[in-house]
RNA sequence: GCCCCCGUAGCCCAACCGGCAGAGGCAGCCGACUUAAAAUCGGCCCAGUGCGGGUUCGAUCCCCGUCGGGGGCACCA
């Protein structure tokens, strides 16, 4: 029998923690009341949230087969601490966690193990739930939604139909004064029917004259969710197509790293480009890390410029280019079109090279047609990876055609080159080598003329393009002169001139493309859409939702050789004929339809899960409007740092998660929320009002001589002689240490289960929060966890006798000094919790506790606030101590200690005396000493008198803390 | 190549508005407890802020340059 049976050990922590987790669950401690909906509890809202509400959110976790590692809970603990703190401030806090359970990894795992993805997914969720529960997170357990639940994806499908049944009206006024918003497609049909809007098409037929198929095609060109045949990213190794956001720079799939090919396929798209401006502009209205905003702005890639037509010599055609530098038009000495540009065929003249063709322009071919054909063939065969590898060496051939520069009538040669991208701008450029590095390189390579139209700054290398600002030169014709103007003004002038001449117009261009929304996989939400015999799509009525994913014997996708770009996607649902072929009555009697066999990407479920958290039991609506407004509505004051006059967009109060979703999930969710807002379903215009990007927990990983990772847990460390570097060995072989993301691939998994066992959840929580700032990536060090345990042991010992279990706090009042320390600690900890500075909060609490440890017995008047302040970080031990201190109720809603401002300042402070900025003396003075008195007092100090024997130049007084004397 | 962030003790990190470089933890060392060890407890040691300039009475903090680390973008016209 141990002599200290009541010591705070891992075993004791385990008992205490599990007991409190049970009690929280039984009492529904963290269930947040809703104002409306099926759980309407307005009274609960009123008494639980006298100080308002708080919606705290974690990124939607994917239940992986490997279970959690110690990196996963970092954000969950942080939000939990924040949420618990705010509950103690008297706010109604909603914090919960659900599961994003559709998607590729689950399906691949299922295929590997021969089990149904539903089975493996559900098993994984069970494991993850157990691991998370053991962490002691204060989640509202009723709100743990799962995307694979038909009661959930019914609403994912419903939202899809809202988007499908909408179009973007550029001219519609928004409440915020801007123009453009989503409207029901029925409004558009009404406009066509009434003749208020011209029906697209050249034959002048009216809406009623069109066939159903023709109408369907026109509507598809407006719908925010539509099918179209377009070049898409096809990954044969995955058996599915992917969105642009899911393809890496190297032209491979983000998941699985398979090669991706461009292929023309009919696919579902989301018209996210309609929202490009608002998605870019509204970043000013949210509180996000600047780097994430920058990444989104970058991805949207808005650039202001002009479109200019260059008439092709000897043809009625004109090549339209996009340029951000219309001010440099006079320096456009040639043009380049992308190899895939549809105009190329029409450009190339029959017969021989024209007069003036330089030998290097021909690519060695006899005729322009041969040269262009050969070049196009060569580029189409090269993958993006190969183009990348070739660096920036410019290639291309002359098309044999010339086009006329509209500002000076010069005929300039037109080239085909792959440095111009078909997918950006108009797929054609005017080349201005004097002011563009890429054009400069091309001009040098192909011996083309270079005209500078901006005078380079002093010291500019004359052998390079000049892209900076400066006065225009060589930029005049009979009607207009830009000479002498700066870039900005020159742009304005020339655009006005072009518009006047009808040669071009100012415009805005975006890098953002529409979002490819279908996948040829089984494990996803089915599209609530059917096609009739003409191929026209029809929405299923709401009454037919959810359209359940059929249980099929063969759910594995057809995958191909990763390099086989001739393959075609084959969705698994396409094999379920009895499901695909249906007879339905959609309003004009029973007819035969074919279901959509693609499924949605797993971003679909995560685009709106936070809305379902608000009202998960509602089967009348995806969320009750009153609940949405309560938790998400725009607030009276905009976020800090927003431009003056900003109207708050509303949204989740705090969202914490890794930065890896900066342009995927975060952009998609913003888009959906904006559409739903436009359609009147949401008060909020943004999903995430405040987003905080957490750092990663990194762990040591070890490689052997061949560079292969070895199991980190089996590596031994030996520290040789003093001062020597530690040596790491694995099975006798010396290995090299590095730090990286925790996971299977680096073989450095550390499971939270091990931490619970060895230390308990509170110690683990404290360790992760105490490591350093939340936004930093930090190395995991299992050996260091013990420090957090020691702290909790010392706290415990200040309250409980380790031998008898008796309460040992003193009922005597604390000393003035201790009381002041307590109040300073309260003040600091409150500030730290508010700003997510958990590491410094822990340091302050440790300091306060260390002061108690030195006493014979810790006074209750200090212990109780200490326990309350510790509660958000280490809730189990805090609950246990609180209970032992004689409080029967959970402390979850106990008011957080308040600092007395009187006690934050000491009666006397130490004033630093500097001479010429160097500390030379210090003196204790009353805290409220006046500047004059302090000055006199310091000047009378012996050391100072000595130093200023030769006179005084200045005396800087910062009462009461500092005086700096500068002798003459 | 361009843009952003970060360099403080052996390691992770503090330092309010430009005002004494150190709060907390790990590791190390010494001591207490122990037959011993582990655990625990008490104590100690350790940097002048990557480097070079500048502004200032005074710089970890502001400015310029430079080196190192991390991240983003990368023919986007």
TrEMBL record:
InterPro entries: aa-tRNA-synth_I_CS, Leu-tRNA-ligase, Leu_tRNA-synth_edit, M/V/L/I-tRNA-synth_anticd-bd, Methionyl/Leucyl_tRNA_Synth, Rossmann-like_a/b/a_fold, tRNAsynth_Ia_anticodon-bd, Val/Leu/Ile-tRNA-synth_edit
Domain Methionyl/Leucyl tRNA synthetase, residue spans: 60-164
Short motif 'KMSKS' region, span: 741-745
Reactions accelerated catalytically: tRNA(Leu) + L-leucine + ATP = L-leucyl-tRNA(Leu) + AMP + diphosphate
Gene3D superfamilies noted in UniProt: HUPs, Isoleucyl-tRNA Synthetase, Domain 1, Valyl/Leucyl/Isoleucyl-tRNA synthetase, editing domain
Record's keyword terms, sorted: Aminoacyl-tRNA synthetase, ATP-binding, Cytoplasm, Ligase, Nucleotide-binding, Protein biosynthesis
UniProt-listed PROSITE patterns: AA_TRNA_LIGASE_I
Methionyl/Valyl/Leucyl/Isoleucyl-tRNA synthetase anticodon-binding domain location: 819-929
One annotated GO molecular function: aminoacyl-tRNA deacylase activity
GO biological process: leucyl-tRNA aminoacylation
EC number: 6.1.1.4
Binding residues annotated for ATP, in chain numbering: 744
Subcellular location: Cytoplasm
UniProt enzyme class: ligase
Domain (Leucyl-tRNA synthetase editing) ranges: 297-499
Family: Belongs to the class-I aminoacyl-tRNA synthetase family.
Protein name per its UniProtKB record: Leucine--tRNA ligase
Lineage: Bacteria, Bacillati, Actinomycetota, Actinomycetes, Micrococcales
Gene: leuS
């Amino acid at each position: 029998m141990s002599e200290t049976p009541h010591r705070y050990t891992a075993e004791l922590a385990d008992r205490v923690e599990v007991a409190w987790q049970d009690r929280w669950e039984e009492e529904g401690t963290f269930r947040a009341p809703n104002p409306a909906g099926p759980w309407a509890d307005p009274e609960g809202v009123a008494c639980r949230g006298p100080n308002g509400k708080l919606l705290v959110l974690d990124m939607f976790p994917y239940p992986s087969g490997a279970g959690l590692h110690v990196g996963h809970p970092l954000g969950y603990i942080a939000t939990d601490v924040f949420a618990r703190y705010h509950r103690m401030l008297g706010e109604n806090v909603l914090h919960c966690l659900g599961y994003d359970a559709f998607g590729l990894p689950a399906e691949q795992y299922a295929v590997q193990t021969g089990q149904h993805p539903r089975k493996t997914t559900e098993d994984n969720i069970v494991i993850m739930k157990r691991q998370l529960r053991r962490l002691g997170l204060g989640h509202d357990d009723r709100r743990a939604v799962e995307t694979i639940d038909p009661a959930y994806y019914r609403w994912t499908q419903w939202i899809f139909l809202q988007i499908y049944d909408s179009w973007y009206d550029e001219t519609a006024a928004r409440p915020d004064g801007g123009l453009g918003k989503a409207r029901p497609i029925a409004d558009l049909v009404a406009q066509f029917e009434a003749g208020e809007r011209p029906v697209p098409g050249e034959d002048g037929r009216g809406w009623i004259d069109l066939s159903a198929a023709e109408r369907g095609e026109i509507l598809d060109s407006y719908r925010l969710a539509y099918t179209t045949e377009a070049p898409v990213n096809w990954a044969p190794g995955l058996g599915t197509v992917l969105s642009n956001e899911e393809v890496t720079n190297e032209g491979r799939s983000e998941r699985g790293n398979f090669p991706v090919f461009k292929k023309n396929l009919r696919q579902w798209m989301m018209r996210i480009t309609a929202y490009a401006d608002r998605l870019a502009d509204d970043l000013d209205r949210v509180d996000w890390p600047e780097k994430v905003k920058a990444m989104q702005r970058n991805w949207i890639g808005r650039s202001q410029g002009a479109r200019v037509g260059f008439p092709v010599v000897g043809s009625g055609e004109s090549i339209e280019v996009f340029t951000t530098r219309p001010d440099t038009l006079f320096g456009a000495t040639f043009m380049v079109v992308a190899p895939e540009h549809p105009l190329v065929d029409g450009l190339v003249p029959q017969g021989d090279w024209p007069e003036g063709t330089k030998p290097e322009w021909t690519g060695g071919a006899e005729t322009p047609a041969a040269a262009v054909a050969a070049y196009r063939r060569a580029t189409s065969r090269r993958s993006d990876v190969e183009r990348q590898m070739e660096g920036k060496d410019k290639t291309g051939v002359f098309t044999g055609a010339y086009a006329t520069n509209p500002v000076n009538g010069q005929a300039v040669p037109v080239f085909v080159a792959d440095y111009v991208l078909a997918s950006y701008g108009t797929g054609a450029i005017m080349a201005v080598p004097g002011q563009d590095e890429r054009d400069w390189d091309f001009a040098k390579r192909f011996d083309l003329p270079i005209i500078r139209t901006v005078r380079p700054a002093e010291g500019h290398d004359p052998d390079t393009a000049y892209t900076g600002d400066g006065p225009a030169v060589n930029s005049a014709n009979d009607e207009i002169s830009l000479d002498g103007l700066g870039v900005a003004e020159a742009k304005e002038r020339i655009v006005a001139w072009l518009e006047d001449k009808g040669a071009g117009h100012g415009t805005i261009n975006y890098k953002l493309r529409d979002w490819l929304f279908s996948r040829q996989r089984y494990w996803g939400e089915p599209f609530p859409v059917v096609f009739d015999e003409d191929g026209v799509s029809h929405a299923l009525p709401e009454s037919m939702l959810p359209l359940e994913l059929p249980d099929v014997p063969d759910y594995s996708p057809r995958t191909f050789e990763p390099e086989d770009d001739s393959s075609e996607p084959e969705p698994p649902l396409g094999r379920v004929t009895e499901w695909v072929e249906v007879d339905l009555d959609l309003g004009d009697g029973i007819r035969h339809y074919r279901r959509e066999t693609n499924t949605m990407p797993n971003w679909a479920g995560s685009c709106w899960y936070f809305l379902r958290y608000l009202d998960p039991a509602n089967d009348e609506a995806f969320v009750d409007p009153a609940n949405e407004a309560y938790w998400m509505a725009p607030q009276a004051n905009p976020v800090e740092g927003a431009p003056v006059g900003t109207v708050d967009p509303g949204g989740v109060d705090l969202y914490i998660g890794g930065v890896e979703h900066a342009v995927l999930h975060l952009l998609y969710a913003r888009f959906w929320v904006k559409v739903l807002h436009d359609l009147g379903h949401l008060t909020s215009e943004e999903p995430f009002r405040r987003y905080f990007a957490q750092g990663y927990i990194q762990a040591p990983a070890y490689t052997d001589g061949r560079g292969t990772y070895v199991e980190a847990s089996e590596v031994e460390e030996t520290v040789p002689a003093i001062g020597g570097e530690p040596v790491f060995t694995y099975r006798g072989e010396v290995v090299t240490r590095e730090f990286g993301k925790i996971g299977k691939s680096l073989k450095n998994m550390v499971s939270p289960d091990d931490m619970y066992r060895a230390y308990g959840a509170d110690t683990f929580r404290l360790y992760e929060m105490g490591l350093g700032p939340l936004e930093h990536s930090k190395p995991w060090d299992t050996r260091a966890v013990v420090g957090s345990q020691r702290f909790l042991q010392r706290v415990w010992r200040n309250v409980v006798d380790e031998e008898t279990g008796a309460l040992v706090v003193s009922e005597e009042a604390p000393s003035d000094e201790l009381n002041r320390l307590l109040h300073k600690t309260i003040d600091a900890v409150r500030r730290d919790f508010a700003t997510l500075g958990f590491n410094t909060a822990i340091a302050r609490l440790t300091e306060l506790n260390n002061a108690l440890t030195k006493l014979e017995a810790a006074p209750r008047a200090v212990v109780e606030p200490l326990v309350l302040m510790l509660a958000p970080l280490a809730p189990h031990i805090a609950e246990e101590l609180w209970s032992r201190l004689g409080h029967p109720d959970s402390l979850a809603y106990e008011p957080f200690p308040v600092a007395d401002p009187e006690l934050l300042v000491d009666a006397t402070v130490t004033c630093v005396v500097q001479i010429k900025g160097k500390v030379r003396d210090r003196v204790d003075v009353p805290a409220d000493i006046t500047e004059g008195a302090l000055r006199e007092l310091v000047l009378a100090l012996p050391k100072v008198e000595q130093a200023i024997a030769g006179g005084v130049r200045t005396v800087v007084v910062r009462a009461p803390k500092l005086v700096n004397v500068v002798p003459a």
